[in-house]
From TrEMBL:
Record-given protein name: Crp/Fnr family transcriptional regulator
Gene3D superfamilies: Jelly Rolls, Winged helix-like DNA-binding domain superfamily/Winged helix DNA-binding domain
Domain HTH crp-type: 141-211
Molecular function GO labels: DNA binding; DNA-binding transcription factor activity
Alphabetical list of PROSITE patterns matching this protein: CNMP_BINDING_3 (PS50042), HTH_CRP_2 (PS51063)
Organism name: Burkholderia territorii
Keywords: DNA-binding, Transcription, Transcription regulation
Length: 221
């Protein structure tokens, strides 16, 4: 599983052995809480297969989703570096195989592996850009554009290199990421299909033109 990760393949053999000896993989079903908000950040987390969301919820159950993380994505390096409490819930949107690198292993790599340090710097930079875009989109864009931008983020090759042009995701799952109803997601996807930027199938979205998808709604900003 780790052999599919570009950062792992860049490691020296002794560092690869360290990761394999101390890390683990788990299978989680849709709806499982994988990591709790305000719990210690004990692991750097990756998605081997599936889809997770990073979100917060208040006492009444109202939630706010920061990001979706598809196959190939890694997240949480900021909190792991600072050894701080996690700032969000990590929830499986669909059945997922999740990878866990312990915090001490992460720091050992950060201290001794230049390729890993370089990867983490790029990861932090790209993640910051994604979060800024997410806040901007949620405040300034209409629902159709928010759906387009949420999809475009899932295909960001810098953060999610394993995402293929066709993504296995239901309208309900996409609604969980965007924060709107399945019915409204359906309307937005139909509109985006008319624009020619994607094609729809059962529980499947194929992006036809990623650049055009990422431009949807930009004129509203």
């Amino acid at each position: 599983m780790f052999g599919q990760c570009a950062w792992f393949r860049a490691l020296a053999p002794e560092h690869q052995a360290l990761v394999l000896a101390q890390s683990r993989a788990e299978t989680h079903e849709a709806g499982d809480v994988i990591a709790r908000r305000l719990a210690p950040s004990e692991y750097w987390i990756g998605v081997h297969r599936g889809l997770l969301k990073l979100a917060i919820f208040n006492a009444s159950g109202r939630g706010c989703t920061f990001s979706g993380v598809p196959s190939g994505g890694w997240f949480g390096e900021g909190s792991v570096i600072k050894r701080e409490l996690r700032k969000y819930e990590v929830v499986a949107v669909q059945r997922s195989i999740v990878l866990f690198v312990p915090v001490d292993t992460f720091h050992a790599l950060l201290d001794t592996s230049l390729p890993f340090t370089r990867f983490v710097i790029h990861q932090l930079n790209n993640r910051m850009g994604e979060f800024i875009a997410s806040i901007q989109n949620s405040r300034l864009l209409d629902v159709d554009a928010r759906v387009a931008q949420a999809l475009a983020q899932l295909f960001n090759p810098a953060l999610y290199p394993d995402t293929c042009p066709s993504l296995a995701i239901s309208q309900e799952e996409l609604g969980m990421l965007v924060g709107v109803s399945r019915q409204r997601i359906n309307q937005a996807l139909q509109q985006l299909e008319k624009l020619g930027v994607l094609r729809l199938a059962y529980n499947q979205i194929e992006v036809v033109d990623l650049a055009a998808l990422a431009r949807v709604g930009i004129e509203q900003i």
